[in-house]
Amino acid sequence: MEVEVKYKDKGKGVMYPESSGTITALVVDDEKTVRMIHQKLLNRIGVKNHAVENGKEAVDIHNTGKRFDLILMDWDMPVMDGVEATKKLRSMGIRNVIIGVSSCPTMKIQEFMDAGLDDFYMKPFNIRMLNDIVNKMQSCRSNWATDAIQASK
């Protein structure tokens, strides 16, 4: 079985997934403006999303049982930073995609990755970067679905 992902060209040469609405995202950033920008970008490509101000809030929302396919995690935040939050989420068994989105010093990126990130992008984050992430996620989902169907035969 093949899964086809259709795309729409909404201008500026960027292709957007037609039905990415099944993907949910959590934006974790202490800066209100950044949260709003990331949410606007997610909305633009049809990804349902929610935002919180720090890592502790990200952990707390997962403790309620709520789950997200994608977590966009800042590094430097009060209360609980992105490194600690990522480690905590991974220790809770959260295996969803966690992407670091930060302007942290280059020497800190490896520490952030080692905490359990799936990938890292430097700020400023843009629609092309987000589109790349969503396309990779859809590709992985398609491959997983195909593998599951093949395994059941």
UniProtKB/TrEMBL annotation:
Task: Output the GO biological process annotations, alphabetical, semicolon-separated.
Answer: phosphorelay signal transduction system
Domain of life (superkingdom): Eukaryota
> Which stretches are transmembrane?
none
Where in this protein does the record say 4-aspartylphosphate is found?
D74
Keywords for this protein: Phosphoprotein
A Pfam family assignment: Response_reg
Cross-referenced InterPro entries: CheY-like_superfamily, Sig_transdc_resp-reg_receiver, ST_Response_Regulator
Q: Does the keyword Nucleotide-binding apply?
A: no
Sequence ranges assigned to domain Response regulatory in this UniProt record: 24-138
**Entry-linked PANTHER family:** TWO-COMPONENT RESPONSE REGULATOR, TWO-COMPONENT RESPONSE REGULATOR 24
Annotated protein name in UniProt: Two-component response regulator 24-like
Q: Which organism is it from?
A: Abrus precatorius
Q: What is the lineage of its organism?
A: Eukaryota, Viridiplantae, Streptophyta, Embryophyta, Tracheophyta
Q: What is the gene called?
A: LOC113860782
